[in-house]
Amino acid sequence: MKVAVLDIKGKDTGRKVDLSDSVFAIEPNNHAIYLDVKQYLAHQRQGTHKSKERAEIAGSTRKIKKQKGTGTARAGSIKSPIFRGGGRIFGPRPKDYTQKLNKNVKRLARKSAFSLKSKEKSIFVLEDFTFETPKTKDFINVLKSLGLENKKSLFVLGDSNNSVYLSSRNLKQSEVIINSELSTYKILNANSIVLTEGALEEIESNLNK
User: Fold this and answer.
1) Which GO terms are recorded in the biological process aspect for this UniProt protein (predicted)?
2) Which superfamily is assigned to 2-42+101-207 in CATH?
3) What is the mean pLDDT of residues 148-156?
4) Alpha carbons 132 and 120: distance in angstroms, whole number
């Protein structure tokens, strides 16, 4: 599949690139996408939730009333979960939510996500670019030129570019990442994907292993 290479003003440069059919035109595997997105979301959880149990509560250990003759249930400690301020029964404990996923499944998921976006004609190829200084206004002009001003967009760069990243950081609808930060979730979460020529080469190289 051939796609025109655009410049930052949204104009055709006269050059075209081939999008590899093995990455951008496969039959999407929905289950692979589900597994990869599930892993990504699980990894966003810190797992630091914790409540104090009976043994961790600060308080006296003396018996708070005599065993018999009060007419009420026996009680041996103010730290008991049945009292206000006592420990919590079966409360949350720190947990590791990370999940393992086969590399081949992850590649298949990303290929499937790219193929879905390709069918929707939501993939743009942009020539490599940079800004002299970080300016949000310059990045907004790029979005306007591509018709992406009011859409969720994901820009994938071949190499880290601090000027471009800082120029986009204040815009909620747009995100700039490098190839190594790419994930199935981010691909699907964006309405449009903008790949620079350098990023496209790396993506096809990595996903065709």
Assistant:
1) translation
2) Ribosomal protein L4/L1 (3.40.1370.10)
3) 93
4) 34
